[in-house]
Amino acid sequence: DWNMPDYITEAVEKIRAQVGTDEVILGLSGGVDSSVAAALIHRAIGDQLTCVFVDHGLLRLNEGEMVMDMFAKNLGVKVIRVDATDQFMGKLAGVTDPEQKRKIIGAEFVEVFNAESAKLTNAKWLAQGTIYPDVIESAGKGKKGQTIKSHHNVGGLPEHMKLKLLEPLRELFKDEVRKLGVALGLPYEMVYRHPFPGPGLGVRILGEVKKEYADLLRRADAIFIEELRNTAYEGVVVPGFDQDAAPRNWYEATSQAFAVFLPVKSVGVMGDGRTYDYVVALRAVQTQDFMTAHWAHLPHELLGRVSNRIINEVRGLNRVVYDISGKPPATIEWE
Ligand code: XMP
């Protein structure tokens, strides 16, 4: 039980004492942990912090712009945005195996991040949003989860850079990181977002990843999320549900929700014509620990509205299905 303003004051002093007048680099992913770390470090040392934001082209709709607005525009944080979409798409061309895709995206990420970091020759520190559960987890290892943290391979940087690690969230649990983020002025909606995997849409496009598929998926996913947020939740709170407050809408009543692109074409009708277009699956789950999960019993009207909107608004998609598989035996992601 700790007092937030006091905690921030203490954390800020600790960071200042640690880095002095040195320059710090941080890899911003758009995720909660790296965002909160960035906000905290910026509070402590301002312009001594430079963030590198690698856009792999597999982010959600407008996510890159949102990150830049939030940090560069609103908070005045120095952020270098690297648009590496073509580079990632090139490396992923022809690759269909999920684990292979993860490896490529992870390796490419390190490559791009290091290349950009190497230009910041004055930097002495690499900051990461490592939180307490990551510390425990990396002691155990062996999970397929490859988060932003494992991307930041200090070993890949030039010898003379030898960065020291700055991990100001190391002692915090996720819920504490979120509270800290809100206290530092990050938007509530951002801080309480569903988890998003490091490989992004790369594991939500089944099989080969193409920019065309990612563009269709992004739009379908955004419609789904918007409707979940805009639909009031009136049910009972799911026992053991991982949320402080009672959910107000279906986004808050689910632990993770997203669209998945299926590279399968099916026949449809539109006006007088026939369509032959791709399918998206909607996935929404409720879970406490993400090790097991139930599919969310979303209201049929909500599902119908999402389906209509996707098919009407996203040319190239003509069929929407809902995933009713639990975990186990299915996983949350489709790959
Ligand atoms: P599964 O699909 O294994 O997912 O039931 C459990 C949780 O882990 C997330 N996930 C990942 N996160 N890199 C990540 O950072 C990954 O490669 C990855 N694969 C799955 C998934 O989104 C869910 O929250």
Explain what the structure shows.
The chain has 335 residues and is α/β, with parallel strands linked by helices. The protein folds into two domains: 188 residues, Rossmann fold; 119 residues, GMP Synthetase, Chain A, domain 3. It has a five-stranded parallel sheet, with helices on both faces. Strands 6, 7, 8 and 9 form a four-stranded mixed sheet that branches. α2 packs across α8. About 4% of the residues have low confidence. Bound molecules: xanthosine-5'-monophosphate (XMP). Xanthosine-5'-monophosphate binds next to loops.
Task: Give the count of helical stretches.
Answer: 11
CATH architecture of the largest domain: 3-Layer(aba) Sandwich
Provide the gyration radius in Å. 21 Å
Which geometry do the CA atoms define?
Answer: globular
CATH domain class of the largest domain: Alpha Beta
**What helical percentage do the residues reach?**
25-40%
Please summarize the sheet with the most strands.
5 strands, parallel
Give the beta-strand count: 9
Tell me, rounded to a whole number, the average pLDDT.
92
How would you classify the helix and strand content by structural class? alpha/beta
Poorly predicted spans: 142-155
CATH evolutionary superfamily of the largest domain: HUPs
Question: What distance lies between the first and last C-alpha atoms, to the nearest angstrom?
Answer: 39 Å
Order of helices and strands: HEHEHEHHEHHEHHHEEEHE
Looking at the structure, the CATH topology of the largest domain is Rossmann fold
Bound molecules: xanthosine-5'-monophosphate
Whole-number tally of structural domains = 2
Strands in their spatial order, largest beta sheet: 3-2-1-4-5
Function: Catalyzes the synthesis of GMP from XMP.
Subunit structure: Homodimer.
Organism: Pseudoduganella flava
Catalytic activity: XMP + L-glutamine + ATP + H2O = GMP + L-glutamate + AMP + diphosphate + 2 H(+)
